[in-house]
Design a protein that fits this description.
This protein is an all-alpha fold. 81% of the residues lie in helices and 0% in strands.
Amino acid sequence: MSVTLFFALYCLEAGLFFLIVPWTRLWTLNPLLHSNLTVSMLAGNAFVRGFVSGFGLVHILIGVKDIIRISLARRGGSREG
């Protein structure tokens, strides 16, 4: 169960990162994203930023789903025991 909990927490943390970072200065001033002209053009595109944020939202939903599943399993197990 602890592996599942750590996975859920990872999904929440990664999801928040991917949801927020594309819209911050960390994204716009990152030298790795601006080292290549093609990558720089993609990184500056609002659709790419939205895609990365959507990827983060999916991670958050997976994390919340796993935490709810763990919570329900613990409640169900405590009633039987």
